[in-house]
Design goal:
The protein has helices at residues 7-26, 29-36, 40-46, 50-71, 77-86, 95-108, 115-142, 150-171, 175-178, 232-245, 258-265. The protein is an all-alpha fold. It comes from Halorubrum kocurii JCM 14978.
Length: 280
């Protein structure tokens, strides 16, 4: 069996690259043809309009997301949930991925006016919320999560992550740029008020670097001094683990690492899989 992409896959890759380069409104059938090395007449042979092709592309992206989610169906529930959360993180170097999602955001605005596009968006939303529901139900059955309203929790989690992604790609800022206060995304659980301690209460040994290490910090947190300012999606993902996922965990279950989650759900290789984000 050949691993070579089919003509349909090549066309879908061309749509991905054209959207990334030109956006939804400005991408033309000729742009797509140029990106996939096909003739414009061939595209029109299979798809009457750009809209028809974009609807097929949404179907392709969502189907790919379904396959990737299914591939992790047997993973431990807490790790699956961390992977789902990590899927929404856009790092600063992910310029192409962010450009693609800007185009998809344009496409999403057509949902209220275009029934075929709306149907695909509804399908995507059901996939996202349904995935979280499945993870939570599996975790509750396995004793990993407490017994909670899975539908309500899934809706909250998806809305939080999707909103963070939308805010980042529209404002294109870091955590501090998009937050009202300083230090958004930093774990404040160990913060103390000025009255809790003073220089007179501490000894030189209290600040010794040997007294603590990154391994001593709560799982899912980070020291802002040890790495660059997080993007907004990363900051929200970290906060989601602490504020939403951690309270769900049964006693004795360790909070999974966001880094592990990101690695778990990262596409393998490039090419055809690079457009397989679980969204839109």
């Amino acid at each position: 069996m050949s691993d070579e992409p089919s003509a349909a896959d090549e066309i879908m890759d061309g749509v991905y690259r054209a959207l990334r380069a030109h956006g939804y409104a400005d991408a033309t059938m000729q742009d797509i043809a140029d990106e996939c090395s096909k003739s414009k007449s061939l595209l029109h042979y299979h798809y009457d309009t750009k809209e028809d092709l974009l609807v097929a592309f949404l179907d392709h992206v969502i189907s790919d997301s379904e396959r990737r989610i299914a591939a992790h169906a047997d993973d431990p529930p807490a790790e699956r949930l961390a992977g789902f959360i990590g899927w929404f993180v856009f790092e600063r170097q992910a310029v192409d991925r962010e450009a693609f999602h800007i185009a998809l955001l344009e496409l999403r605005t057509q949902g209220p006016f275009n029934e075929p596009i709306r149907e695909q968006l509804v399908r995507s939303d059901r996939l996202l919320r349904g995935t979280v529901v499945d993870i939570l139900e599996s975790g509750i059955e396995a004793g990993v999560f407490r017994d909670v309203d899975v539908e309500e929790t899934a809706a909250l989690l998806v809305a939080t992550l999707d909103g963070a992604r939308t805010r980042q790609i529209t404002l294109s800022g870091g955590a501090d740029d998009a937050a009202d206060g300083e230090g958004f995304g930093r774990d404040r659980s160990d913060d103390s008020s000025p009255d809790d301690s003073s220089p007179d209460d501490s000894s030189p040994d209290d600040s010794s670097p040997d007294d603590s290490s990154p391994d001593d910090s709560p799982s899912g947190t980070f020291d802002a001094a040890d790495r660059p300012e997080p993007t907004y999606t990363r900051a929200v993902a970290e906060a989601t683990l602490r504020r939403i996922v951690d309270p769900l965990l049964a006693e004795g279950v360790e909070l999974p690492s966001l880094e592990v989650g990101i690695a778990e759900m990262a596409p393998e290789g490039g090419g055809r899989t690079e457009n397989g984000d679980a969204d839109e």
